[in-house]
Specification:
Order of helices and strands: EEEHEHEHEEEEEHEEH
Mean pLDDT: 90
Strand content: 25-35%
Number of strands: 12
Helix content: 25-40%
Largest sheet: 8 strands, mixed
Radius of gyration: 18 Å
Low-confidence stretches: none
Length: 236
């Protein structure tokens, strides 16, 4: 299926220019997907591994009949870890993107976020933006505290690569070695920290042999993340 694209320039409240893009099939779309990339993805025309993964996912979603919304992300200092200001800036822009296309939204609404993009989506959902969404898929997103989601959500999926390890260092000077947590541990903890106005239907998925943003990290066959995420976005 041919992918149609419409790119527009917009100005955010801080006066920065950025591009939004709607990718859609030739015929009427049957679903709407908001796609938020990780911190490594800033521009719509990037060429990194994560950029390519998002592009392949966009094309696969459109092939299934969905329209996909994406945009340039606010610039950030790559020399420091992402913090709350980064997720807030991305949440603001993603919210603008979704509201700008409200009149075009059709079918089930799905939000997909990778890492920092997932944190940005959580910020939106805690504020009730959008008020209602059918599906949320968060990739490599870890919750360290209880998070109340004001938006009404039908299903929420937490997706992790099985080799996405998180290291913690003791805050005391006891000489304790770092502790590495696996996603089969912190994935369950993250799911338990999600709280909604109504009971949330939360599922945790581990993709064997994949890393933080679902790239292969082991020899041998691994699942195709694009196919798996496309299925989750479609509710399968």
């Amino acid at each position: 299926m041919a992918v149609q694209e419409r790119t527009q320039w917009r100005i955010d409240p801080a006066g920065a220019a950025y591009r939004t893009r709607r990718s859609f099939p030739a015929g009427p779309p049957n679903a709407t997907v908001l796609l938020a990339g990780p911190g490594s993805v800033g521009a719509l025309d990037g060429e990194g591994r994560d950029d390519i993964l998002l592009r392949d996912l966009t094309y696969r979603l459109v092939a299934g009949g969905a329209q996909v919304l994406t945009c340039d992300m606010p610039a950030r200092d790559r020399g420091r870890p992402a913090d709350e200001s980064d997720s807030l800036a991305r949440a603001d822009r993603l919210g603008q993107l979704l509201r700008a296309h409200e009149h075009l939204a059709v079918g089930p609404i799905t939000l997909i976020g990778f890492s920092l993009g997932g944190q940005a989506l959580l910020r939106m959902l805690t504020s009730g933006d959008p008020r209602q969404t059918d599906r949320v898929v968060l990739v490599g997103t870890v919750l360290e505290e209880d998070t109340f989601l004001s938006s009404q959500i039908e299903t929420l999926d937490l997706v992790y690569g099985s080799l996405d390890l998180i290291g913690y260092v003791a805050e005391t000077d006891d000489g304790l070695p770092p502790v590495a947590l696996t996603p089969d541990m912190y994935g369950k903890w993250s799911a338990a920290r999600l709280i909604g106005r109504h009971a949330l239907d939360v599922h945790v998925y581990l993709f064997k042999g994949l890393g933080h943003t679902l790239h292969p990290c082991a020899d041998g066959p691994v699942p195709d993340p694009v196919s798996a995420l496309t299925a989750l976005a479609a509710g399968r």
